[in-house]
């Protein structure tokens, strides 16, 4: 994906936003429908609170089996078969605009929310493709990065694990993502502040603790950290499923400590997960296993 192509209106009686979505998807931009308020359609009841851990798109297997549109940016897709499937058609018919996942197309949107933020960008950042918004501008760069809101007054960064509203092709040529933008999202490392208490469920009757030596548990935690670290997509889903696997294997005998959990959280946060997402994924995994 190297540019945002102007929309070509298609004939027929389909919702105009669907024509827009199909054109953008054909150019490699993962899309999703947005309802009034510029927000995605809500998660299905099965996935309320993102209990299934999310999923990268509608065609990837996961613990979620709902037929509709869910999971916001993670549901964005370029597959026309999915975009025009019956559940999505219902959403497009009610949608007010098209959203897209910048990071999924290798893009970063610097969302400038007011005139002061726009003035700052013009003085600080290299020129690139710009799109007018209601109150400010979107500056779009070639290259993906971690998303982060409120990096400075009136400035948000939307790339990985985020969605943006499509407002037109904009003007100007796409520039490569500069270090000045990447630097805005860098936070000083901080210790994990919200680590759930380690599980202390005793072994079931007749079971023996598998951790006679520390090696088995250490190897399991190491493999879990490696799995998270090596993930290249679907980070949120990978973190949840890894937490689920760790708890399933190591969570019932009381040997899993806060230090082990901190290692898992640190690996997840290094991939862009927030402390809250880590805590939610851990809690959801424990709930799933009845711990």
Structure write-up:
The protein is built from nine helices and ten strands. With 291 residues, the chain is of the alpha+beta class. β7 (148-152) and β8 form a beta hairpin. The radius of gyration is 21 Å and the shape is globular. The relative contact order is 0.13.
What is the tally of beta strands? Answer: 10
- SSE order, as H and E? HEEHHEEHEEEEEEHHHHH
Overall average residue pLDDT? 79
Count, helices: 9
Structural class: alpha+beta
The fraction of residues assigned to DSSP E strands is: 5-15%
What oligomeric state do these chains adopt? single chain
- First-last Cα distance: 44 Å
Poorly predicted sequence stretches spanning 5 or more consecutive residues: 5-11, 55-63, 188-192
Rg over C-alpha atoms, rounded to the nearest angstrom? 21 Å
Major pleated sheet? 6 strands, mixed
Percent of residues in helical segments? 25-40%
